[in-house]
Write a structure and sequence with these properties.
The structure holds 2 protein chains of 2 kinds. Chain A is of the alpha+beta class. Helices cover about 45% and strands about 15% of the residues of chain A. Chain B is mainly α. Chain B has a two-stranded antiparallel ribbon with strand order 1-2. In chain B, about 60% of the residues lie in helices and about 0% in strands. Chain B is built from 16 helices and 2 strands. Classes of the chains: A alpha+beta, B mainly alpha. Chains A and B meet through strand 4 of A and helix 5, helix 6 and helix 8 of B.
């Protein structure tokens, strides 16, 4: 995108400050709207003036979208535009959405969540937690979808690889960082973990 | 033999603990805590200026960085221990993803190595921080105020703006403090000693950040001085045995021990000693570490039979 518009005027000095700000807001919203994956701050900074704060611009856009059915959210290392959660049923009813960003069954999600909490974790570590072998296939599927990647080797016999979650994992589950994982105490209180 | 060891210790034992009139001060009113933290900071300052030139500063900062990383992970609801972090830091190759614990330690380690006296230090500090905090990074410190007041100001500024970026806020607080007292490198001091509830209160815009920072600085300086004294003692022993080591590359290997919390013989010493072009075989690296343990100057840190890590 940046290559096609090498001479984009980012400073917009001929515009009065207010219009300039609107134009920057418009650009940021357009760039995020056009992208299927989260747009990192550095990319957004390239379409606005040197002194403009991307955060403030994003905040202004978010304020403007307050009543709309879609929102601008911070995930992983960037921003993403998505429909609000409460319209999920409506969207599902109108369009049979079966092409998902990720395709995971319940057990795969459980394995993924375990890795997220306990990373870096080896297959042996997973076996200890689940009480059964976690197949290489399952790990392979999670890797193929770029939800996990290999971390440092574990200091055990055979130096097995550990697995850690990726930026895409955060983006898919709408988290800005691993801190957004439900906290363990909360899970225990809800009877979802022991 | 015993006599010689004692002599060495006395020669090098130049670091004194905080005097009792500082450590025994009771009470939590601002007067008291400000007095104690000022006194402790001045003592630590003398230790770090290191008149005798024996303090292993890089090693001290690296170890403090490790402690800070553990404390910050805890604040973020993770419970990796220091040894988990060591494993990641020593065993990960450059191509591996480090995971949350490795990244946290990596950030603190890079921060503690920034030379604040050299130009461009601001950019180097920014690179360690999350993008959002880096962009909002204010000019650090108003020279008119005391170092602790400057540190408290930064802490509350960053925490109220980014309540979930405790690590970044603590890093900038340490940088501000180091700048204010004229240290050339940041000391990771506050993360371990600021209490979780103090941090939450400050993030909510309530409480008195300067009061909390005073308390934390006192405890942190006490801890850092003790650590410096312990490391100084062990490093003196290490330097005393250095001439006995005849292995090729032993000088370079010792330099690595003097700047890293933990050293892994495979990976950091062999095939080449990290940061140098000196080659060392796997076997030579293991033998050197075993010899250093036999001489009592280095400890094995993991208790494992394989993938051992060594440190002073």
């Amino acid at each position: 995108m940046a290559k096609e518009t090498p001479a984009l005027d980012t400073e917009l000095e001929d515009l009065p400050p207010e219009l300039r700000w609107r134009e920057w807001m418009g650009r940021i919203e357009a760039v995020i709207f056009a992208s299927a994956s989260p747009v990192p701050r550095a990319d957004l900074a390239r379409v606005v003036g040197q002194g403009a704060s991307v955060d403030l611009l994003v905040e202004d856009i978010q304020a403007e979208l307050a009543g709309r059915p879609y929102e601008l959210v911070a995930v992983a290392d960037g921003w993403l535009m998505r429909t609000r959660v409460r319209f999920a049923d409506a969207i599902r009813t109108a369009a049979d959405v079966n092409v998902q960003l990720v395709d995971l069954n319940e057990f795969e999600v459980a394995v993924l969540a375990t890795i997220a909490y306990h990373q870096p974790l080896t297959r042996d570590g997973l076996k200890d937690i689940f009480g059964k072998d976690i197949s290489r296939d399952l790990i392979g599927r999670l890797r193929a979808q770029e939800l996990i990647t290999t971390g440092p080797r574990s200091p055990r016999a055979g130096a097995p690889y550990t697995y850690v979650t990726t930026q895409k994992f955060l983006a898919v589950f709408g988290m800005a960082s691993l801190r957004d994982l439900p906290d363990r105490e909360g899970l225990q209180d809800a009877g979802l973990a022991s | 033999m015993k006599e010689a060891a004692k002599l060495v210790c006395e020669d090098y034992q130049t670091i004194h603990m905080l005097p009792r009139w500082v450590t025994s001060a009771q009470g939590q009113d601002i007067d008291r805590v400000a007095f104690s933290s000022g006194a402790a900071l001045a003592m630590l300052d003398v230790v770090l200026r290191d008149p005798s030139g024996t303090l292993p500063g890089a090693l001290l900062r690296d170890r403090l960085a490790l402690e800070a990383a553990v404390a910050c992970l805890k604040l973020e609801g993770r419970n990796e221990t220091a040894s988990d972090i060591r494993d990641v830091a020593c065993l990960a190759r450059a191509v591996d993803a480090f995971g949350p614990a490795g990244e946290m330690f990596g950030a603190w380690r890079r921060l503690a190595r920034v030379n604040l006296a050299a130009g461009g230090w601001k950019d180097r500090v920014r690179k360690v921080l999350p993008a959002a905090v880096a962009e909002a990074m204010p000019d650090l410190g108003a020279p008119a105020r005391t170092p602790v007041a400057q540190a408290g100001q930064i802490l509350s500024d960053i925490l109220t703006q980014f309540p979930r970026e405790e690590a970044a806020a603590l890093m900038l607080t340490d940088v501000t403090l180091a700048r204010a007292v004229g240290w050339s490198r940041p000391m990771p001091l506050l993360a371990v000693h600021l209490q979780r509830k103090d941090i939450r209160v400050i993030a909510d815009g309530a409480g008195d950040p300067v009061h909390s920072v005073h308390r934390a600085i006192f405890a942190a300086c006490d801890g850092a001085i003790r650590m410096a004294a312990a490391l100084n003692r062990r490093v003196a022993k290490l330097r005393a045995v250095a001439p006995k080591l005849r292995a090729k590359g032993s000088d370079e290997a010792l330099a690595l021990f003097l700047s890293h919390d933990a050293v892994s013989p495979s990976g950091m010493l062999s095939p080449v000693i990290k940061g140098t072009s000196v080659a060392m075989t796997d076997r030579a690296a293991r033998r050197l570490c075993d010899r250093l343990v036999d001489l009592g100057v280095v400890r094995e840190l993991t208790g494992r039979a394989t993938f051992r890590l060594y440190g002073i």
